[in-house]
Design a protein that fits this description.
The chain has 327 residues and is an alpha/beta fold. The protein has two domains: 109 residues; 203 residues, Alpha/Beta hydrolase fold, catalytic domain (Rossmann fold). 46% of the residues lie in helices and 17% in strands. It has ten helices and eight strands.
Length: 327
C-alpha cells in the first residue's frame, strides 16, 4: 500500500509540473501577442496613409488582443489556484485549500487510504530509548492515525531490555501469536536504573513515556491502556491510582498495591491472579472488593491451579487484549 501511495505521488507531482509549465507557456504567449499587437498598431499609425483602412485594421487588431486576454485571464485564474486540483483530480471539497497537494498524506486521502504515512518512522519490533526509558516496541507496519497504545510493565526479574524481549507477554505480540486484533502500538519500558515498577518514584516516567509517544506517532490519548505482571502489576495499581484519568483501562496480573478505591471508580479494571498464589490472591481480592464497594467497574479472574509463572500465559491468548481494546 505504501509503495502504491508513493508511486501515485510521483505521478501527481509530474501532473502538477505540467500544469505549472502550461501556465508559464500561456503567459509567454499572451505577453508576446500583446507586444506584437502594440508594435503592429504603431506601425499602422505611422505608415498606413489610408485612414479608413488603417482604422479598420487597428479595430481588428484590438479585437484580436481583447479575445486573447479574454481567454487567458480565466485560464490563468483556473490553473493558478487550487481549483485546478479540483478540476483535474476531482478532489474532495475539504481538499481544495491544501498547499501540499502532492504530499504522501494528500495522496493517501485521494486514494481513500486512511493510513498516515510517517516517513522515517520505525515500524515492526525494535528497541528504542523514549523519555529516557529503554523500551521494546511493536508498531504496525502501516502506521495509522489515532492508534491505541498498550503499555506493559515487567516484573522484578526482568530489568534489562534483553530479558523483557523474551517475556511471554511481549513475544505474544511480536511473533504473531495474537491474531484478529485491531492495530495498536505496544510498548514495554524497562524501569529506570534497573529498578522495579513497584517503586513509586518511577511512576511519573510512564506519563512522560506517553507524552513522548504522542509526539512520535499519531496516538489516541483517549485510548491508553496499561498492564503489568508481578512487580509490573504492582506498578499498574500505583500508576492508575495516581493518574486514573490518563488510562482507558488496566489489567494487573498477579500484583497488588495500596490504593484509594474512590480514585479507581471510573477506570475499568480486569485483574488476574493464579489460584495457587495465596498471598497475591488474598490481597487482590480485598482490593477488588473495595473498588466494587466504591462503585467501580472491576473484576477478578482467578485462574484455577495456576502459580505465579503460569499466570503469564494470560497474555498468550486474545482474551486479555480483546477485553482491553474493547473498553
Amino acid at each position: 500500500m505504501i509503495t502504491n501511495v508513493y508511486r501515485n505521488v510521483g505521478f501527481l507531482h509530474t501532473i502538477m509540473l505540467i500544469k505549472n509549465y502550461f501556465i508559464a507557456f500561456l503567459t509567454l504567449i499572451m505577453l508576446s501577442t500583446l507586444i506584437s499587437v502594440r508594435m503592429y498598431v504603431f506601425h499602422l499609425i505611422k505608415h498606413d496613409k489610408n485612414k479608413r483602412v488603417k482604422k479598420r485594421k487597428v479595430s481588428m487588431v484590438k479585437k484580436t488582443a481583447t479575445t486573447i486576454l479574454t481567454c487567458y485571464i480565466p485560464l490563468s485564474v483556473i490553473f493558478s489556484t487550487n481549483y485546478a486540483n479540483t478540476i483535474i483530480f476531482k478532489m474532495k471539497p475539504e481538499q481544495k485549500n491544501t498547499s501540499t497537494f502532492y504530499t504522501a498524506q494528500m495522496t493517501a486521502r485521494y486514494n481513500k487510504v486512511e493510513d498516515e504515512i510517517l516517513e522515517g518512522k520505525q515500524t515492526g519490533s525494535f528497541t528504542k530509548n523514549i523519555a529516557n526509558l529503554d523500551c521494546y516496541l511493536n508498531v504496525p507496519e502501516i502506521v495509522k492515525s489515532n492508534l491505541p497504545v498498550v503499555i506493559f510493565l515487567h516484573g522484578t526479574s526482568e530489568r534489562s531490555i534483553e530479558k523483557v524481549k523474551q517475556l511471554k507477554p511481549v513475544t505474544a505480540v511480536t511473533d504473531g501469536t495474537l491474531d484478529g486484533l485491531e492495530d495498536f502500538i505496544f510498548v514495554a519500558p524497562t524501569a529506570p536504573h534497573r529498578g522495579s515498577w513497584y517503586q513509586s518514584e518511577y511512576w511519573d516516567t510512564v506519563i512522560d513515556l506517553i507524552d513522548a509517544l504522542s509526539e512520535e506517532y499519531s496516538v489516541n490519548l483517549n485510548r491508553i491502556y496499561i498492564t503489568g505482571f508481578s512487580a509490573g502489576a504492582n506498578g499498574v495499581w500505583g500508576i492508575i491510582n495516581k493518574y486514573p484519568d490518563k488510562f482507558r483501562a488496566a489489567v494487573p496480573v498477579s500484583g497488588y498495591n495500596n490504593i484509594t478505591p474512590e480514585n479507581l471508580i471510573n477506570i475499568p479494571i480486569y485483574a488476574i491472579v493464579g489460584g495457587y498464589e495465596s498471598g497475591f490472591k488474598a490481597s487482590m481480592t480485598r482490593m477488588v472488593n473495595s473498588i466494587q464497594e466504591a462503585g467501580g467497574n472491576v473484576s477478578l479472574n482467578i485462574i484455577p491451579q495456576a502459580n505465579h509463572s503460569v499466570t503469564q500465559s494470560s497474555y498468550t491468548t486474545n482474551e486479555l487484549y480483546t477485553w482491553l481494546l474493547s473498553q
